Structure formats: C-alpha cells, structure tokens
Amino acid sequence: MTISLLLLASSAWALPPGFHETKTTQYCQLALGKAGPNGVVPMRAECHWPHIEPDKLHGLMGAWGDHDLYFSSVVSSDVQKTDGGRSWVHQVHRAKGISDRECVVVMEKTSIDGGARYGWTVDNGGLVVEKGRVEVAQSDGFWEIRPHADGGTAAVHQLSYDPGGSVPGFLVRWFQTSGLTAVVTELESYAASN
Question: pTM to 2 decimals?
C-alpha cells in the first residue's frame, strides 16, 4: 500500500523544466536540476505533509534565528540586523568530512498565491570567517509554504549551494541526495512534534 501511495504522490507532482526526480520519500519528491553557469546543481523537494498545518510551518520558517533548531546542518543562525522586510542572518553550516562553512544570508518573506515564500541569498560583504572555517560561495534558495488541496501543507524547497573551498565530489553528491532528504525530513519531524 505504501508503494502505491508513493507512486500516486510521485505522479501528482509536476517538476519544473530542467529538473529530474532522484528520489521519493513518504511525503516528498526530490529532484536535481541542470547545472548553472558556475556549475552548481540546484536541488528541489516538493512535499505534501498532510499532518502539519501551514501556520505551524510559517511560524518556523519566519523565525530566522531558530533555523539551527530544525536543521542539523545549521550549527548556528543568528540575526544580525533587520531592515524593512529583510534580515541579515549569520550562519555556520556543518557537514561530516569537511570544515564548517560560514556565511551571511539575507532572508526575506514574500507573499505568493495562497501562501508565503521564505527566500535567501548570500551577502558575505564584510564577513570575517573564523579560523578553520570556509566562506560559503553560494546559498540561494527558498521554502514555499501553502495549504495543500487535500489538507495539510504543500511545501517546496529549492536550493543552489556552493560550499566554497575544496569538497570531494562524493560529498557533493551525498548532499544532493541524502543531505536534501535530511533537510526536509528534519523540518517535517520538528513541525510534527513541536
């Protein structure tokens, strides 16, 4: 029964042009896009969480300084300043096998049809990287949260991430599959249990 539900769910998702499915989980379809001019491959997850209401996720995603509570890859997430609807957030990212990564991301919530988009891009101007860490070269992404037609939440997460420095290819490939799975699973688990 679970397999047939996954196949039904998988066929219900329509990925944007240029993306191909790499994996499905109980609630999500994961995909990779075509590499951009700098060689970064965008990752995408489209999820239906029938057991989580959108308001719960809006509260979590809009709390920029709390992202280290939900995502194991984010060691710290500290709001440095807010100007209008944008916030500059200093983050430290951790992945097994490589040095910690550090960046400042500008985060902003915008309205979309039926929900909200929580987007970010790197702004490392003035960043002094702590010794032993590496500056993130690119982190552009978003979460879109809206009600799902069948109840619960429709969540879309997309990310183009270049960790900077030297990273073995097998770790990049791991992050594009298992790492993306962890991100969506951790948010779903945190939202469901808190």
Answer: 0.90
